[in-house]
Write a structure and sequence with these properties.
single chain, alpha/beta, Carbamate kinase, Archaeosine Trna-guanine Transglycosylase, Chain: A, domain 4, 2 domains, eight-stranded mixed β-sheet, six-stranded mixed β-sheet, 13 helices, elongated
């Protein structure tokens, strides 16, 4: 692992593409890469997570952002990504900056083996002073299998490489306590608990898939992983170093508490739900008290199609998510074991085991600073007969 200071920089579509004609803003790209090249020279490891491929490709598929559907956006991403990377490469070459492209999907970030492969690739790029440019692979992503926005993707990347800072550049200076268009809106310079500020962040930009709310989600994920988040305006001249040197206004989201283990961090920062278990309120209380895992006798209902090693979201009977943990069995095995409590496990699933469905050692109890996820309603739920 490199001992250099690691910084993840996230750039939104509104900074990269002109909102009227959906063409590249070369002035911003030039200012950004000039700044990143200088920071790299000063000894920092930089990762750039970049939106923009969909916005830049919409002209080629004949659509405006407000009318484009999922298939239009997938096609636009396939058209726009080469344009975006070509621009990055051309400008980077002016500053002797080497860049590499990495396209990822939500499955890449959630599955442990792929997660480690991506991490190892980025670390090798660092060793060779190459700037990784990461984007979600929108050309193959679907509505149900998307990271959803590159803000949270950047937080996952920051978690992955154990970054020191996540810098999110956007079209505003930072976070306000309400809509900044309101006359009495107050700028927030520093945040200790991101979850307290979610209600004031509801708007989205014309080009991006998220707004300040997704930036707060990203900051929450980063906080729990021990990464400081900075939200600042994406100005043209020295957009990153001017923030690092405290030369202009921005919002700083501080690291909260003691950083958990890498496993616990990976469990807490989820982008999609692989599967869920519902347990009784009594069992849920035992889990929260760190006294037990989830046995086959505890399962009231199962949701989702999951495999061994997936992360399950555990809910109580009131629909509150209380924990997340690694499952020792597939959804089919779990359903069979829970439905046939009168039979030995080996007779039900074909092999002998003493494992819980989710072991206590592989459970993360959600604290107040973790954002809970609602169980997906579209998946079929299997209720276990009493």
């Amino acid at each position: 692992m490199s001992t250099k200071k690691k910084i993840v920089v996230k750039i939104g579509s509104s900074l990269l593409a002109n909102s009227d004609n959906l063409t590249l803003r070369y002035a911003f790209i030039n200012g950004l890469l000039s700044d990143l090249a200088q920071l790299q020279t000063e000894g920092h490891d930089i990762i750039l997570t970049s939106s923009g491929s969909v916005a830049l490709g919409l002209n080629m598929v004949g659509k405006r952002p407000e009318e484009a559907g999922v298939l239009d956006k997938q096609a636009a991403a396939a058209c726009g990504q080469p344009l975006l990377m070509n621009a990055y490469r051309q400008v980077a070459s002016e500053y002797d900056l080497q860049v590499a492209q990495m396209l990822v999907t939500v499955e890449d970030m959630e599955e442990s083996r792929r997660f480690l492969n991506i991490k190892n690739t980025m670390l090798r790029l660092f060793e060779n002073d190459i700037l990784p440019i990461i984007n979600e692979n929108d050309s193959v992503a679907t509505r149900d299998l998307r990271v959803g926005d590159n803000d949270r993707l950047s937080a996952k990347v920051a978690q992955m490489v154990e970054a020191d800072q996540l810098i999110i550049l956007t079209s505003v200076e930072g976070l306000y306590d309400r809509d900044p268009s309101e006359a009495d809106a107050k700028f927030i310079h520093e945040i200790e608990d991101v979850s307290e500020h979610l209600e004031s962040t509801t708007g989205i930009s014309a080009l991006g898939s998220g707004g300040m709310l997704t930036k707060m989600h990203a900051a929450n994920m980063a906080q729990n992983a021990g990464v400081e988040t900075i939200i600042a305006e994406g100005i043209i001249e020295r957009p990153v170093s001017s923030v690092l040197k405290n030369e202009r206004r921005f919002t700083r989201c501080l690291v909260s508490g003691v950083t958990a283990s890498p496993l616990k961090i990976w469990l807490s920062n989820r982008l999609q739900v692989s599967g869920t278990l519902v347990v009784s309120n009594e069992v849920a209380a035992g889990i929260v008290g760190r006294k037990q895992g989830v046995s086959r006798m505890d399962v009231i209902s199962i949701q989702g199609d999951f495999t061994k090693g997936d992360v399950l979201h555990i809910y109580n009977e009131d629909g509150e998510e209380v924990a997340r943990g690694l499952t020792n069995f597939s959804s089919e095995e779990t359903m069979l074991m829970a439905r046939h409590l009168d039979m030995p496990v080996e007779d039900v699933i074909g092999y002998k085991t003493k494992s819980d469905v989710v072991g206590a050692e592989n459970i993360l109890v959600l604290e107040e600073n973790h954002l809970q996820l609602d169980a997906p309603e579209h998946d079929q739920k299997v209720v276990i007969p009493a």
